[in-house]
Amino acid sequence: MARVLSKDNLSRALKQVRRNKGAPGIDGMTVDELPDYLRQHWPAIRQQLIRQTYRPQPVRRTMIPKPQGGLRPLGIPTVLDRFIQQAIAQVVQQDWEPCFHPRSYGFRPGRSAHQAVRYGQHCAREGRNWVVDLDLEAFFDRVNHDRLMARLKRHTPDRPLLRLINRYLKAGGQIDNCKAPTPEGVPQGGPLSPVLANVVLDELDWELHRRGLRFARYADDCQILVGSRRAGERVMVSLTRFIEDSLRLTVNTRKSAVDRPWKRRFLGFTLSRKGQRLKVASEAISKLKARIRILSRRTRGHSLVQVIADLKETLLGWKAYFDEAEVLSSLRDLDKWIRRRLRSYVWKQWGRRGYRELRKRGVSVRLAWNTAKSAHGPWRLSRSPALAQAQALPAHYFRCRGLPELAVR
Fold first, then answer.
1. pTM for the whole thing?
2. Which residues lie below 8 Å from residue 120, measured CB to CB, with a gap of 6+?
3. How far apart are CA 371 and CA 401, in angstroms?
């Protein structure tokens, strides 16, 4: 607790909470209001933490959509509790970091999802062309508190700190002024949750190591690379038993599978069948397309400049993550699709001015007239010679207006 409450640790925690931003908890306090609140109330809160009388507030429960459909429960702690959790997480991380397995890549300093994906690719290229894809059902909601606390004692034996962590686990959740207990699980949304998840699954990592298996894990996403289907099925059966009996977690049999790496996705990527090159998974492209459809819907009524500015923010963030992809054909198709969406948007905005706008851009009288009088809709016309040819709305037109190209390296 002395390390948690040290000035340097608290200063780093405050900076991190302000950097992460996020929504208010049940008390309505925002991140921007936290520094002033701490200036007035921190001495009293610090004394409560030292005397072990501090009681965390329940998290605000909300549901967010999953990429593959359905809803995921998210627990949003108050800003004050996020600050204290961040201070705790930094100390627990320091204690456990030397002990974590090297093939655990999630929420650790100097490690990333790209490293996990690259290691899986390395194993596949070495001849391990079968993957055991493990999916833990509602992992964050089903973590056993007793096992977690017992495991935490190994490298963080401080009783006051453990008692405070346990209070955060038992703080409960609140939906519409109704408080619900949390007898199990680690609520997603707090800074402490990722570290505690690694503490729980570190036991799985070392069990895989003990069996001599090649694997990569990022939070609760884990893939094990093996040499044959038979070996994969054997590993799946034995690991399911270990996870359910020892870790007291549940393997989602509907989503877990033994298959070829190029038929499964891992952290948004998959592998090509030939050469095992990194490729963006089709699900990630579909999710991006859904977002682009919202930003470029033809009834928005915004200028093209504004639409491209909105798209740019989304596309640059997406590209920053998926720039590791080595197969670019799907990204080139995606760039063409985005430009087609924008041509449809521009054509809809031109309306009755379509003929004049085409002529201004050098389209012949006949072609401009036939396009303007066509019975086809904007999407069909977006790939017509008049709109897509060099004089009207070519790729260069959108490039000059700041539209990022995902396939360009």
1. 0.89
2. 131, 216, 223, 225, 261, 266, 271
3. 24
